Amino acid sequence: MQSLAINAALLIIDMQQGMNRPKLGRRNNPDAEVQIQRLLTAWRQSDRPVVHIRHMSRSPDSVFWPGQPGCEFQPALQPLAHEHVTEKNVPDAFVASGLERWLHARGIRQLVIAGVITNNSVEATARSGGNLGFAVTVVSDACYTFDQTDLSGRLWPAEDVHALSLSNLAMDYAAVMETDEILVHC
């Protein structure tokens, strides 16, 4: 990262109470929420824009089904009144949400992404952001994922799924950095 623009937006993806449900399985990076809180504190102190992205599922068995506690933001990561909240129904936060328009209207060209799930909503949003011409950075220690079984039935540890997803992003779509590297620029 060359420098952090004064209007670089922090996108916090899907940090909702539903992410703590045991049915999602074993996860990696147990300190991700601490790192997200550190980023959020720095963004608030520097008066940079924060965007909280909330997933509202179309599937009744989802932990993000509307009207259920799982849809609510985690208490430590609650948006402040002046912070933007974007709702989405698919993994990519740019699809049918107005996010791109909101960012362009404010002249925001640099995005720092944290949240979940690394290989789902984080990756989908970072890919679109990169394709749309934003300078995207994904904060590797401020994201996490879960163990995943592939189509042949092999179980992949969350650590491997996370690492491969970040590697995919680093090829063409985003810079990948840790929280400490980002905070040096705040």
UniProtKB/TrEMBL annotation:
EC number: 3.-.-.-
SUPFAM superfamilies: Isochorismatase-like hydrolases
Isochorismatase-like domain boundaries: 8-180
One Pfam family here: Isochorismatase
Enzyme class label: hydrolase
Protein name (record): Cysteine hydrolase family protein
GO molecular function, a single term: hydrolase activity
Source species, domain of life: Bacteria
Keywords: Hydrolase
